[in-house]
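Fold description:
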Amino acid sequence: MKRGNTLYVVVPCFNEEEVLNETIKELKKKLESLIKKKKISGNSKVMFVNDGSHDNTWKIISDINRKDKMFTGISLSKNEGHQNALLAGLMTAKEYADIVISMDADLQDDVNAMDEMIDKYYDGSEVVYGVRSSRKKDSFFKRITAQGFYKFMKFMGVDIVYNHADYRLTSKKALDAFSNFNEVNLFLRGMFPLVGFKSDVVYYERKKRFAGKSKYPLKKMMSFAWDGITSFSIKPIRMVLSIGVVIFVLSIIMLLYCLIVKLLGQTVAGWTFIVGSIWLIAGIQMLSIGIIGEYIGKIYSETKQRPRYIIDKNLEDKE
């Protein structure tokens, strides 16, 4: 594969004014190094995606674009969430680049892993996943829940790269194929393996956030995990069916037991067992309805076919 392809680094941003100037500094240094080594062309750029930020994020992006054409950006019409903002950046960048690397703005992803990613691309990989080498810097709770999430996703039948988030290299060929995926409910780290093509991984040590607060508190992380499960697996519905079959069999056994007790003339023991059984079955029914309702809600969202993002400004159009 011919070297010196154009690289765009896509960075979703939501209220990242505290870290953005440092991110710009680090990415400029990295791209200049890659250009000097002739791994990428001099037309390579960093594309920031402003996801409806309320602070000075877009002003910083616009200012650096005027000063240095290595930096460009798009601004969404409103906050669409990390996955939609990332998708907007990928779909926009593929029109200008041969290869695209996506990463977060908080500098937790090691920019030096880009060298190996690009090498693997030139060796024939169309998708290269950045994978955390360890979780030593995570809190005990974050480490346990994150590892549990990946294992549970595997159990649910989702083809997902263990300890990979959204730090990855994708070729224009892979992104063109990915553009045919029209889901409204996005879980990108589970969708890219579905594209196929040759892929590889690069291991790196994830750093602590440089500044600012995480945009993924526990509530959002749980919601994200649930979206991933229900967007890629029907096992929860099958589990509901299995539970229903078990309860049906138990109810037949209990019915036979009650008939035998009645025929023997024995009194049925108190109301505690009856009331407990009613509450248990009612709870399982409500849980089952909720799970099925979640899938119906996703079908409802998909059938409306609303746009996943709307781009308000694109600094590339000014050049």
Notes: The longest strand covers residues 164-171.
